[in-house]
Each structure stands twice: as structure tokens, then as C-alpha cells.
UniProtKB/TrEMBL annotation:
Protein name: Glutamate receptor
Location within or outside the cell: Postsynaptic cell membrane
Domain of life: Eukaryota
GO terms for MF: ligand-gated monoatomic ion channel activity; signaling receptor activity
Transmembrane segments: 103-122, 180-202, 361-385
One of the record's GO cellular component terms: postsynaptic membrane
Species annotation: Myotis myotis (Greater mouse-eared bat)
S-adenosyl-L-methionine recorded as keyword: no
């Protein structure tokens, strides 16, 4: 591992190698004092208290004047270390993240507004009112409008889900409302789809600064470097305007933003709103061991680490040759990977898509299950409501429930006759229905209908309408305004229609 403090190697005058290894006394790398002396490792090399300084000692022109350096064994630059605030991890309802809560609210309001306007416009325009009977089109005063309140609420849902519906606008005004709603949903769905993958697969990091210029232009985040290190000297001697402003800030800031060691700077980054300026090698080393740290921007300069020694040292050529050999056989890179890679954090350059798990999209399954439960509950209510209000003419609830369950299990055809209680067919007459009717002469010359206001049995009315269907006018109910009209060609008579004709009074055949 890299040393936690600068170290020097000393050779006693009465012995030969191996070397004695000890920590430097003041714990700094070395900076010049006002009287011309140097502190730290550089000072001990100048006074020859040490023969070698093996550490992350940066090669600078100022140090090169007073000591000798070996060839650089590692290249680096000044970088910014800052902590990250991880965004909210994907959850069960992460599929709602592409839009903010405000957007979802406005989408709901837009849906309700379009539904109400569609209902109003469809009621106002005359082109949405039409006759439901094809045979009596233009002759009957009975007109219908397909845009009821329920259909007006359902039609935008079909457009939003891109599924459509059987309801088709007829008037130009309703088509205009439909067109703008479809265009709106197209943009909304496209935007949602484009952002959904990113929100589900990427755990976003919140970093308020992105470069050294952003750091220099703000005052909220404090920043500093190691006191007495090469990074401090870099800002102190720089002529670049941005770096000069940063040096003036660090020099005048109280309490001091300088730290005594790399470990102190990293701890200050993690525990306060502080950005640490340090060499990129140390930056990478600590980021590999703490996933809450990140590097902001690129390198501020380029330099290297070298082994320091007194001027004219006999070890210089030997160390230069050894470093070149280690670089050629890639030994230095192997050693760096061994000691630098912590293995605790994923590689920053790995942006491959990850598969989504239930923790990402489990919420949509919850929505689906809730919707199915609500649908089943509503179907049961509709079933019980219908049977409760037709107890006088229909079968019992238990019998109908058993029949329906049997049909579901056996996958029977959906078409079935209406089941009635046996006692109702013989003992109880069907209720009378008084309807205004008028006579009408069909194309075959037969007179249909009776005088207006005449009471008519429900069974007789059903028989009469069924006979009209058999003769070619499907789903036609004769209105007072309809005097006569030309019906379609008479189809072939079926046995059922003949049975209706033979029944006395148009009654129900046995």
C-alpha cells in the first residue's frame, strides 16, 4: 500500500545495505522557508540526514534545484476529490420517475378537460346526432348521440393507450378534439419511453460542480490542499487567473482550508462540504475504497513521482536503470493494479445496460393486480345487481351463479337463451307495455303495427319486432313520423319466422 506518511531511507556511515527505513520527522514532503531552508523530506536530503526519499514525492522545478530525482515512476496531475450524493435508488414505482409529480397531475387534468370538452362539443354539433336504424335513416325522429358521459371519458383513454375504440367521431369539431388529443398523447408517450430506460437502469449521482472553473466561481463549497505539498506550491506560483483566485481564497480563508495529510483531507470531504485538491493517484486510490467519493473534472496539470536523493548521489543512475526496466516489462503497472484497485466500487467507465429486476418495475405488477381485483369486484356487483332487480322474472341468484360457473369451467359458448322461472311461463302474465305506435306498410304490402296508445303485451311486441327482422328490417322500430318506407329485398323465410307468423297474435311459439 502507499505509505500513509512520507518516508526516507537512511544509511548509517558504519554499515552497508540493507537500508534503514523511517518516517520523516515533521511529516511533510518539503517546502522552502523564508530563510531559504527546506522542511520535510527535501530538507533532510539537503542536509544529508537521508540518502533516499521514497514516497509520492512530486518532481518540480523548484525541488530539482536543490535535490536530484530519479526518472518518474508514475505520472499524475492535480485533481478534485468530492463526495457524491447518490440519487434515489430504483423502487417499485420507479416507472413513474420519468415525469415529475406535477407533470402527472397536469396530465390527469388534461384528460378530464378533454373528456368534458368532447362531451360538450358532441352535444352541440348536429352531426353527432344520428338515427340508429339504418332502414329508417332520415325518416325517424329518434336520434342518438354516441358520446355519452361514459363514452366521453373512455374515448381519451383508448387514444392515450394507443388502442383505439369502436367510437369514431363524425363531426369536424369532435375530430378536431380527437386529433389534438392524439398529438398530445404521441409526444407524451414518446418522451416517457425515451426517459424510462435511463431512470430504471442508472442510479444518478448528484454533483453540484463539474470542473475547476465551477469550483472557483462559487463560495458554498470549501476547497483546499495539503499544506506544504507540491499542490500548494502549484497554486501559489501559478499565473493562471482561475488558479490565482483559488490561491487567494485558500490563503485567506479562516478557519484554514489546508490539511496536514491526505487522510485528513479525505475525512474532511466525507464529513463536510469540502473539495480536496490532491494528486490524481491518491484520488484514484481512495475512490476505489469509498464509493461515496468521486473525481470532479480532469487534471489541472501533468507531472510525475520520483525518488529523491541528494545532489550528486551515486544511486541515481542505478535507480534510473531499474525504473526503466520495470516500465518496459510492465511491472510497475502490475504493482499499481495490485495495490490501487480496492474492488469495492464498480468501474466508472462501465455503462453497460443492466437487467431490470422486480425492485425496478414491481409497482406495475401491483397496479395490474389491483386493477384485476377491482374489475372482478365490479363484475360481481353488476351480476348481483341485475339478479336482484329481476327476481320476478328471472331465475334465482344461486341457480344463475351455478350456471355461470359451469359455463366458465366448461368453456361454453357465450350465446345462451334467457332462463326464466318455470312458473312465470304459465301462471304469471308478462307485464303490459303501453307504447305509441303507428301503422306502416312494408314493401311486401303487409300492414305492421296498431293504433297509437293501444296496450300491448310485452311478448306480443317482441314477436312483432322479431317478425320484422325476419322480413328484412333488422333492428327497426316504427315511429309515428314514419309513414311508409322501402325496405330491403325480402330474404328467404326461415322456420323461426314462419313459427312467429303461425303463433296466434304474434305470441311466443312453444
Amino acid at each position: 500500500m502507499p505509505p500513509t506518511r512520507p518516508t526516507v531511507s537512511s544509511t548509517p556511515p558504519w554499515s552497508s545495505p540493507p537500508f534503514w527505513i523511517r518516517l520523516v520527522g515533521d511529516g511533510v514532503y518539503g517546502v522552502p522557508e523564508a530563510n531559504g531552508t527546506w522542511t520535510g523530506m527535501v530538507g533532510e536530503l539537503i542536509t544529508r540526514k537521508a540518502d533516499l526519499a521514497v514516497a509520492g514525492l512530486t518532481i518540480t522545478a523548484e525541488r530539482e534545484k536543490v535535490i536530484d530525482f530519479s526518472k518518474p515512476f508514475m505520472t499524475l496531475g492535480i485533481s478534485i476529490l468530492y463526495r457524491v450524493h447518490m440519487g434515489r435508488k430504483p423502487g417499485y414505482f420507479s416507472f413513474l420517475d420519468p415525469f415529475s409529480p406535477g407533470v402527472w397531475l397536469f396530465m390527469l387534468l388534461a384528460y378530464l378537460a378533454v373528456s368534458c370538452i368532447l362531451f360538450l362539443v358532441a352535444r352541440l354539433t348536429p352531426y353527432e346526432w344520428y338515427s340508429p336504424h339504418a332502414c329508417a335513416r332520415g325518416r325517424c325522429g329518434l336520434l342518438v348521440n354516441q358520446y355519452s358521459l361514459g363514452n366521453s371519458l373512455w374515448f381519451p383513454v383508448g387514444g392515450f393507450m394507443q388502442q383505439g375504440s369502436t367510437i369514431a367521431p363524425r363531426a369536424l369539431s369532435t375530430r378536431c378534439v380527437s386529433g389534438v388529443w392524439w398529438a398530445f398523447t404521441l409526444i407524451i408517450i414518446s418522451s416517457y419511453t425515451a426517459n424510462l430506460a435511463a431512470f430504471l437502469t442508472v442510479q444518478r449521482m448528484d454533483v453540484p460542480i463539474e470542473s475547476v472553473d465551477d469550483l472557483a466561481d462559487q463560495t458554498t463549497i470549501e476547497y483546499g490542499t495539503i499544506h506544504g505539498g507540491s499542490s500548494m506550491t502549484f497554486f501559489q506560483n501559478s499565473r493562471y487567473q482561475t488558479y490565482q483566485r483559488m490561491w487567494n481564497y485558500m490563503y485567506s480563508k479562516q478557519p484554514s482550508v489546508f490539511v496536514k495529510s491526505t487522510e485528513e483531507g479525505v475525512a474532511r470531504v466525507l464529513n463536510s462540504n469540502y473539495a480536496f485538491l490532491l494528486e490524481s493517484t491518491m484520488n484514484e486510490y481512495h475512490r476505489q475504497r469509498n464509493c461515496n467519493l468521486t473525481q470532479v473534472g480532469g487534471l489541472l496539470d501533468t507531472k510525475g513521482y520520483g525518488i529523491g536523493m541528494p545532489v550528486g548521489s551515486a544511486f541515481r543512475d542505478e535507480f534510473d536503470l531499474a525504473i526503466l526496466q520495470l516500465q518496459e516489462n510492465n511491472r510497475l503497472e502490475i504493482l499499481k493494479r495490485k495495490w490501487w484497485e480496492g474492488g469495492k466500487c464498480p468501474k466508472e467507465e462501465d455503462h453497460r445496460a443492466r437487467g431490470l429486476g422486480m425492485e425496478n418495475i414491481g409497482g406495475i405488477f401491483v397496479v395490474l393486480i389491483c386493477g384485476l381485483i377491482v374489475a372482478i369486484f365490479m363484475a360481481m356487483l353488476e351480476f348481483l345487481w341485475t339478479l336482484r332487480h329481476s327476481e320476478a322474472t328471472e331465475v334465482s341468484v344461486c341457480r344463475e351463479m351455478v350456471a355461470e360457473l359451469r359455463g366458465i369451467i366448461l368453456c361454453q359458448d357465450g350465446a345462451r337463451p334467457r332462463r326464466r322461472r318455470a312458473g312465470l311461463r304459465s301462471g304469471h302474465p308478462l307485464p303490459e307495455e303501453r307504447l305509441p305506435r303507428a301503422t306502416a306498410t312494408l314493401s311486401n304490402g303487409q300492414l305492421c303495427g296498431a293504433a297509437a296508445g293501444e296496450p300491448e303485451q310485452l311478448a306480443q311486441r317482441l314477436a312483432r319486432e322479431a317478425a320484422l327482422v325476419a322480413r328484412g328490417c333488422a333492428h327497426v322500430r316504427v315511429c309515428p313520423e314514419c309513414r311508409r318506407f322501402q325496405g330491403p329485398r325480402r330474404p328467404a323465410r326461415s322456420e323461426e319466422s314462419l313459427a312467429w307468423d303461425r303463433a296466434p297474435g304474434g305470441g311466443e311459439p312453444e
